[in-house]
UniProtKB/TrEMBL annotation, chain A:
InterPro entries: LAMTOR5. Keywords: Cytoplasm, Lysosome. Pfam families: LAMTOR5 (PF16672). GO terms for biological process: cellular response to amino acid stimulus; negative regulation of apoptotic process; positive regulation of TORC1 signaling. The keyword Cytoplasm applies. Transmembrane segments: none annotated. GO terms for molecular function: guanyl-nucleotide exchange factor activity. Belongs to the LAMTOR5 family. This is Late endosomal/lysosomal adaptor and MAPK and MTOR activator 5. It comes from the Eukaryota.
Automatic annotation (TrEMBL), chain B:
Gene3D superfamilies: Dynein light chain 2a, cytoplasmic. GO terms for biological process: cellular response to amino acid stimulus; positive regulation of TOR signaling. It comes from the Eukaryota. It comes from Paralvinella palmiformis. Belongs to the LAMTOR3 family. SUPFAM superfamilies: Roadblock/LC7 domain. This is Uncharacterized protein. One of its GO terms (cellular component) is Ragulator complex.
Length: 92, 110
């Protein structure tokens, strides 16, 4: 049931301009669902990066948003209620 | 480096340790030969479920988790805190390809 609603949400994200991949993981870094260029093997790294970002400002209660930019595009990371979502975007 | 990862134990298919690295937080039970032998047996049995070869088994307990990666003829066992990043631990296998190949080659010589 949860997977179905996540996949529906991911379909919706994929329709946004420039988005070419979405990865969704649980709190343990295990991939729940992936679409497009989002690789299933990167789930652990995504939650790891967000854990490190959280450690940078331990006093801030809001969840951090991390944007990793490269020549090929960017990856936006955000965690909410134990679910981490990574959105791959092209530069165009 | 993964937070909460306490040990990496490489065994043969019978659960006999070939290489072991651990910190001081490794639970006592993990040092028992039966844990590794049972993990090896679980991998072997999982291979017989009819859904192709088993890749890995993640077993989560109250305080710890055991991740057994099937890399025939070796099994890579990783013991970590229950809340450690499982995905990150699984991705360590990719970094271990070269040493694992070396160990496999050495085992084949004997």
């Amino acid at each position: 049931m949860m997977e179905k609603s996540i996949e529906k949400l991911m379909d919706e994200i994929m329709t946004n301009p420039g988005v070419n991949g979405v990865v969704c993981t649980d709190a343990q870094g295990l991939v729940v669902a992936a679409q497009g260029v989002g690789r299933k093997s990167t789930g652990g790294q995504m939650t790891g990066v967000l854990d490190l970002a959280r450690d940078l400002h331990p006093d801030v209660k809001d969840e951090p948003i991390v944007c990793i930019e490269s020549d090929a595009g960017s990856l936006l990371l955000k965690s909410c209620d134990g679910i981490t979502i990574g959105i791959h975007k092209t530069n165009s | 480096m993964v937070d909460g990862l306490h040990a990496i134990i490489i065994t043969d298919r019978d659960g006999v340790p070939v290489l072991k690295v651990a910190d001081e937080h490794l639970p006592h039970a993990a040092m028992q030969p039966r844990l590794l032998a049972t993990a090896a047996m679980a991998v072997e049995q999982a291979n017989k479920l009819g859904v192709s070869n088993n890749k890995n088994i993640i077993t989560v307990y109250k305080n710890h988790q055991l991740i057994s990666i099937n890399r025939q003829p070796l099994i890579v066992n990783m013991i970590a805190n229950a809340n450690a990043n499982t995905g990150l631990i699984l991705s360590l296998e990719a970094d271990m390809q070269e040493p694992l190949d070396d160990i496999c080659a050495a085992l084949e010589l004997h």
